[in-house]
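Long-time lurker. I teach an intro course on protein structure, and each term I like to show students one example going from raw sequence to a predicted 3D structure in C-alpha cell notation. This year I'd like something fresh instead of my usual example. Would anyone be willing to generate the C-alpha cells for the chain below so I can use it in lecture? Attribution to the forum is fine with me.
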Amino acid sequence: MEHDLSPATLAELRRPRPYPAVSVLTPTHRRDPLHTQDQVRLRHAVAQAKKQLEADPAVTRDRRTEVARQLDRALSEVDLSRAEDGLVIFAAPGEHQVWSLARPVPERVAVSDTFLTRNLVSAHTAERPYWVLSVAADRVTLWSGTADRVAEEHIGGFPLTRGVHNFDPERLERGGDQPRGFRDEPTRQFLREADTAMSTVLRDHPRPLYVTGEPAALSLMSEVGSTAKGAVQVQHGGLAHGTPGAVRQAMEPVREAEARRSADEVAGALVAARGRKEFAAGVDELWRSAREGRVRLLAVEENYRVRVRDTGEHLVLAESGDVEAREDIVDEIVEQCLETGAEVRFVPDGMLADADGIAGVLRY
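-- Reply from a regular --
Happy to contribute to a lecture. Here you go:
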C-alpha cells in the first residue's frame, strides 16, 4: 500500500485517464471492534463501484471488465492488519493503486476521468512528513517519518556505506572520542556524496529535514555541502546504525518542540489578522475564500470534521443520512488552499474553538 505523496506522484494521479477512472474511499480502523468490520465494508464499497460501472451506459463491456479486474487486484493487495484511518483505491484501465491514510475518509465511490485526490492531499499535509538523515563516518541512513511512524527509506542511493579501517561507532559513542574519521579526505568525499544524494531527494520529495550525528559529523556535513545548513541539526550519534524505534524516540522531543513553535506562530498570525481585518473562520467563509484564492494561511484542528450541505449560497450543517451532504468539506478546503499557494497548518484540537475548528489569514 502507498504512503508517500510526492509532488510528482500527485501530478501523475491528477492527470486525466481513459474513462472510467474509479476512486473507492472507505474508513478503516486500527483496533477492534470496528477493525473487524473493515473487510466487509471494503468489499461492499468495491461491489458498489462495480454496480456503478454496470449501470453506466458510457462504459463499454470491455472497459467494465478491465476496471473490475483492476479493482479485484487492488482488493487482493490490501493488508488490513496494517490499517490506519482511511483507505483509497484507484482503478482505471491498465492500472490500480491502494493508499493507506492516517486520516479518516468518507465512504464513497466516484467515477470520472480523473482520480479523487483531495483526501490524499489533506492526509499527507496533516501527517507532516519529514526526513531524518543520520550520519556516521561509515554509513549515512535516510529515514522517513510521520506523526506515528518512522521507517528506513531506500531511495536516492540510501543507505550510503563504505569500509572504514578499525572503525567502531559504538566505542566512539561510549567513550566520547574525537572521531579521527571525520578529519580525512575520504570521509569528506563520502559526506559530499551524501549531501548530493540528499539534495536530489529533497528536490523530488520536499519535506522538512533533520540531520542527526555526533558534533563532528554535523560540522563536516555543514562544511562540505548545503543540505545540513538548511536542516534542523540534532546531536545524537548512533542512529545511522540504529532502528526505526530509536530514531522515533530521538526525534520525539525535537518534533514536539517544533509543533509547539508552529502552533504559537499560527496563533500569533491569527491574532494579527484579526487586527488587520484579514481573518476568516468557519467552513462556509473559508470555503468561499479558498475558491476565490484569498487564503494566505489556513489553520485546521487535527481532528476537525464536519458534515455540510451546499444551499447554493452557503454551506450549512447537515444531518447524518442527508444524501446531499458533503462529509469531506475540510479536505476540499485544504486542497483548494494548497492549489492557490496558501500555507496549511494543522494545530492541536481545541486551539481554534472560537473559530469552529478552522480559521484563516486572508490575502485581502
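Some talking points for your students: Confidence is low (pLDDT under 50) at residues 170-179. The CA atoms of residues 44 and 102 lie 21 Å apart.
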